[in-house]
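Researcher: Let's continue the batch. This sequence belongs to Translocation protein SEC62, and it's 307 residues. Same format as the previous ones, please.
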Amino acid sequence: MATPAPANGQFQIQTTGQRSPVATRIANFLFKNSILKQRTGLLDNTNDLDFFKYKRFERALLSDDYKSRQQNPKNGLPPISNAQEVQRIFILLIQNQLILPVTKLHYAEVKAIKGWKPNREKPTLKKAEKAVIDPNSYFGWLYTKPNPFILLYSILAIAGVFAVILFPLWPTFMRRGVWYLSMGALGLIGLFFATAIVRLIIYIISLVAFPKPFWLFPNLFEDCGVIESFKPLYGWEEPKQKKRKGKKTKKNKKTDAEGAGAGAGAGEDDKIEHVLTKKEKEAATGVETAANGNVNRRKVTVEEVAE
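Model: Same format as before. Here are the structure tokens for Translocation protein SEC62:
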């Protein structure tokens, strides 16, 4: 299938356009296998891709589960007993374009690429140029299991198309039954629109006739189930309470302004201090200040005053 692996574990593998049945059966066994512990990542930061490690790939093919299934001839799985045979199967899957070598990028590496954004839930993957057989190497799946019911769905779709095309050839009772069903469906649709119109008319009348608006089937257009849409039968709409901010009259505003002005004036009066002039201080202390800054004390004489 392939040449032996070089010392560095790198392979140059040529892919093929057609998938081998053996490779498909092995991929069908490995895909979503619990031993593989595959996770979902973002290839090129855009597309989801399931990926796994090579060591778990080897562990799954050498497991007892694979050996038990390989013993059943109906499964068509080849025998695998050692690591060299696992490598040959691994190369076979790459040749058939069932797995893809990828590189898991770290946060800083993702930020370094223009236009890419790190994802906390899914790691970012990038396609590797070469496949390296290493226990910690990452590989992504290019394979998805076919839907087992796809054939049944296809047959039912084709049968439905032919049934519609061959409607003129149906028996009379079947065509009559289809006609009754279509009329019943149209009647239900018409009844729904009629209910909506009557409901709106009653609501408009209740705006004038009643203190509260009246609704018939108040949950008719609510986000609920079909049965819940018709429960309750009627209801009164509660008026929405609006928050009203109290407004002061001009008289109250004027009174408040006068009170504020009086308070401010009183505060200023309290702050006023009596300032003595220079002469008043000299007269009180008996000290004179000369022009050169020297302090001269005045002589006080006592005169006798005749009584």
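Researcher: Any comment?
Model: The longest helix spans residues 172-209.
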